[in-house]
């Protein structure tokens, strides 16, 4: 049925009035801060350290490997065991379990192509090195370079895909084959990109003056967004279109693992990064060191103890539980953490940025509504 013209006109006027009401509340400073969280998606360029980056043929090999549990010696653990496509590429567990219990929560792999450092402690400086690591880690997949190379050489399907992706048959050098497998895995993960969300429609509507788009954003999410860029101080660390600085901070989340053990976070990550033959300064990177300035200059300092990478908040509603140890079960629990954070636990630097916000119940719910509005629309 065709909608009569007058009805459409009334609806448009109503939408415009609502939009004015919502947007009129925003100060110019708030509007400017909100606009900095877009546009989305971000442009991206291939990784100079990975010659297979962005190659469609490598994506296919990477996809096959990602779901292949034969990489683990007993054939039980694939990447997808802990990074499940039906769970925003996480496993839904507080801490992961591969061949053994892991201390950390599996991060979502959506938008992973955008980060500079990988892992909660940034122990890898490329997506491919972060993909090689779990295959060889005894407690995760427990594979070996030799076994991985053998799998790629001896499985007819993988061998054919390897040849298409790299232009060559798997070399006799096991390490070269394993590194290429990791680079293909990275090429696949580069395709895991979060879509546009209700927040993006709102933000772009603000930018272009599209009143209907602005009016369509729920009032509670808008109140939460104002807290986020305002009193909450959240966008100091969760900044830009991806809602992360991609650097390391302390928000007073405990790092004790029990039994006198602690997760040292960034300080240990820097040591591992510098010691790794697979970093951007090493012989296996295709960038020749030209892309390695950040890696060359990073140095562990005492203050890096217990720092963890600032995670993106896009699609965060789909990746519970939260934080590096996964001990906060819901977004409500995360917001409560920021509301009640124990200042005694904060490093000096963190204490400047994070203060207990003492949110009312309504404010906490608004902040959660905002975080949910960062979920991609189908
Ligand atoms: C046992 C569960 C498990 C398996 C299996 C696993 N991962 Fe992970 N993954 C994790 C955990 C836990 C982390 C966080 C590790 C850290 O902080 O050091 C992680 C981190 C990552 C990261 C870094 C993400 C980021 O945002 O920094 C990438 C990339 C990744 N995994 C890819 C893979 C690939 C590719 C495979 C298969 C080759 C794989 N993972 C297998 C649990 C797993
Ligand atoms: C000082 C920088 C900083 C500030 C300010 C900050 N965050 Fe965070 N945020 C982090 C870091 C770092 C983590 C990970 C901490 C960890 O795992 O130990 C994190 C984790 C989170 C997570 C969990 C994401 C996940 O995937 O596990 C959410 C949600 C979140 N922050 C929301 C917020 C909100 C809302 C605010 C404002 C009230 C805020 N953050 C303020 C740095 C910050």
Automatic annotation (TrEMBL):
<dbReference type="InterPro" id="IPR036909">
    <property type="entry name" value="Cyt_c-like_dom_sf"/>
</dbReference>
<dbReference type="InterPro" id="IPR051395">
    <property type="entry name" value="Cytochrome_c_Peroxidase/MauG"/>
</dbReference>
<dbReference type="GO" id="GO:0046872">
    <property type="term" value="F:metal ion binding"/>
</dbReference>
<dbReference type="GO" id="GO:0042597">
    <property type="term" value="C:periplasmic space"/>
</dbReference>
<dbReference type="InterPro" id="IPR026259">
    <property type="entry name" value="MauG/Cytc_peroxidase"/>
</dbReference>
<feature type="signal peptide">
    <location>
        <begin position="1"/>
        <end position="21"/>
    </location>
</feature>
<keyword id="KW-0560">Oxidoreductase</keyword>
<keyword id="KW-0574">Periplasm</keyword>
<dbReference type="InterPro" id="IPR004852">
    <property type="entry name" value="Di-haem_cyt_c_peroxidsae"/>
</dbReference>
<keyword id="KW-0479">Metal-binding</keyword>
<dbReference type="InterPro" id="IPR009056">
    <property type="entry name" value="Cyt_c-like_dom"/>
</dbReference>
<feature type="binding site" description="covalent">
    <location>
        <position position="237"/>
    </location>
    <ligand>
        <name>heme c 2</name>
    </ligand>
</feature>
<dbReference type="Pfam" id="PF03150">
    <property type="entry name" value="CCP_MauG"/>
</dbReference>
<protein>
    <submittedName>
        <fullName>Cytochrome c peroxidase</fullName>
    </submittedName>
</protein>
<keyword id="KW-0349">Heme</keyword>
<feature type="binding site" description="covalent">
    <location>
        <position position="234"/>
    </location>
    <ligand>
        <name>heme c 2</name>
    </ligand>
</feature>
<keyword id="KW-0732">Signal</keyword>
<keyword id="KW-0575">Peroxidase</keyword>
<feature type="binding site" description="covalent">
    <location>
        <position position="82"/>
    </location>
    <ligand>
        <name>heme c 1</name>
    </ligand>
</feature>
<keyword id="KW-0408">Iron</keyword>
<feature type="binding site" description="axial binding residue">
    <location>
        <position position="83"/>
    </location>
    <ligand>
        <name>heme c 1</name>
    </ligand>
</feature>
<feature type="binding site" description="axial binding residue">
    <location>
        <position position="238"/>
    </location>
    <ligand>
        <name>heme c 2</name>
    </ligand>
</feature>
<dbReference type="GO" id="GO:0009055">
    <property type="term" value="F:electron transfer activity"/>
</dbReference>
<feature type="binding site" description="covalent">
    <location>
        <position position="79"/>
    </location>
    <ligand>
        <name>heme c 1</name>
    </ligand>
</feature>
<dbReference type="GO" id="GO:0020037">
    <property type="term" value="F:heme binding"/>
</dbReference>
<feature type="domain" description="Cytochrome c">
    <location>
        <begin position="219"/>
        <end position="375"/>
    </location>
</feature>
<feature type="domain" description="Cytochrome c">
    <location>
        <begin position="57"/>
        <end position="222"/>
    </location>
</feature>
<dbReference type="GO" id="GO:0004130">
    <property type="term" value="F:cytochrome-c peroxidase activity"/>
</dbReference>
